[in-house]
Amino acid sequence: NDWSNVIFTDESNFEILNRKDRIYIRRFRNDLKRFERSQPQVHKCGGVGIWSYPTCHGLGPIVFYDGSLNSDKYTDILDQHLPTAHEKFLPQSP
């Protein structure tokens, strides 16, 4: 079990606005100020994703991506960044 030969990868998404913590307010139809005190809904807030790799030798670059990380985008990131990680962090074979 030599962890110095292992490269882990991880990704995470961050929303610009946290849409999961909504507050609902009920207003009656005859409340004249019901629209005055309300705020418009924000749709399609978007977010940002980050990907990187930690090793026992150090941390790789942080890669930013838009939207969700599907298999094609993930494969592109791996193809672009893992060869550099292998050269930089893993020992050369004899």
Question: What's this, in brief?
Answer:
The protein has 94 residues and is α+β, with helices and mostly antiparallel strands.
Keywords:
94 residues, alpha+beta, two-stranded antiparallel sheet, 1 helix, 5 strands
Q: Biggest sheet, strands in spatial order?
A: 1-2-5
Count every helix, treating DSSP H or I runs of 4 or more residues as helices.
1
Shape: elongated
- Portion of residues in beta strands equals 15-25%
Low-confidence stretches: none
Number of strands: 5
Gyration radius from CA atoms, angstroms: 22 Å
- Order of SSEs: EEEEEH
Give the helix/strand class: alpha+beta
State the end-to-end CA separation. 19 Å
**Amount of helix:** 10-25%
Average the pLDDT over all residues and give the rounded result: 76
Q: How would you sum up the major sheet?
A: 3 strands, antiparallel
InterPro entries: RNaseH_sf (IPR036397)
GO molecular function, one term: nucleic acid binding
Q: How does this structure look, described?
A:
20% of the residues lie in helices and 21% in strands. The protein contains 1 helix and 5 strands; from the N terminus they run βββββα. The chain has one helix spanning 71-89, and strands at 10-15, 47-52, 54-55, 58-59, 63-66. The chain has a 3-stranded antiparallel sheet with strand order 1-2-5, with no helix packed on it. The chain has a two-stranded antiparallel sheet with strand order 3-4. A hairpin with a 2-residue loop joins β3 (54-55) and β4 (58-59). The longest helix is centred in the last third of the chain and has 19 residues, at 71-89. The radius of gyration is 22 Å and the shape is elongated. 3% of the residues are buried.
